[in-house]
Every structure is written in C-alpha cells, then in structure tokens.
Amino acid sequence: xxxxxxxxxxxxxxAASLHGTQRRKNAAGTPYINHPIAVAELLARVGxxxxxxxxxxxxxxxxxxxxxxxREELSQRFGEVVCRLVEEVTDDRTLSQVDRKRRQVEHxxxxxxxxxxxxxxxxxxxxxxxxSDEPPSWSLAxxxxxxxxxxxxxxxxxxxxxxxxxxxxEVVEKIRKELRP
Length: 181
Description:
The protein has one domain: Hypothetical protein af1432 (Orthogonal Bundle), CATH 1.10.3210.10. It is globular, with a radius of gyration of 16 Å. It is mainly α. It contains nine helices and no strands. The longest helix is centred in the middle third of the chain and has 18 residues, at 71-88.
C-alpha cells in the first residue's frame, strides 16, 4: 500500500474511533462517521481534489469541534497543514449557534482555498441530508433557513472549486423543490 493511502486510512481510522458513538440527526440515526467520509469522497469525486492533506482534513473536519481530540494530537499525528485546515473549518463552540453561523459566513472568504473546498463539500453533504422528513425534528421552515444559510456560506467561498460550487447549486435547488409547502 502506498504511503498516501496508508496516511488517508489512518485519518479515517482516527475519525471513526473519535466519532464512534455519535449519530446523525436523521430518523435512522446513521453513524456520524459516514458524514466526514462522504465529505472527503465528494471532494475527490466531484471536486477533483487529490491533495492528501485536504482529504485527511476533510475526514477529520469535525473532530476538534465534536470530539475530545486536541489540536496538539492532530498536529503530532498528521502535521501542521492538516491541523491548520481542520482548525479553519472548526466552529467555536463557546459562541451561540447564531454567532457561529454568522461567523461562518463572515470568515468563509478568508479561509484558504483548501479549507473553502472542505466547507463547500460539507455544506453539500448537509443540505443533501435535508428533505421533507429528515431530520425529523426540524420544521420545514428550519430546513429552508438552513439551506439559505448554507448558500450564503458557499457563496462566500465563490471561486474555490467550480465543480463543487455547481454541485451545491444543484443540490440546494433539488432540496428547495422538495421543501416547498
């Protein structure tokens, strides 16, 4: 096995260990690890992103925010580039949800191109998970608000990866049709 493949699988393994007991908000309670794997897969398949550090960071993108791993642990295992990318896309959990969402829109244009690509792929996956019945606890209005906010974040990343941006536009259009009253 080549070194890059082994390094990517090491990131997948760590993310799976860290997110092991977490579940998505959908009715099926899908294992959370499916989400970061989907983000990395989307980057490679749709976005044509093949940089090892970006794919590792995509798989690890929610670890600082949602698990007990530290910045130092990520840096030691995967290097500063991966750690910095994960930090760039990590929300500050000490802020209110409203402030975190506002900051994502405000900070998106200032992220590195690689972090913007991760952010767009993340929004594609999250918006794809919205539908008339998923997540079941969300009202139609909340789902529409999420799609609108995600679009603001993606628009703030404009130019980072045209293929990912086009994919987002198609996904958000499809979801908006499904969420019409």
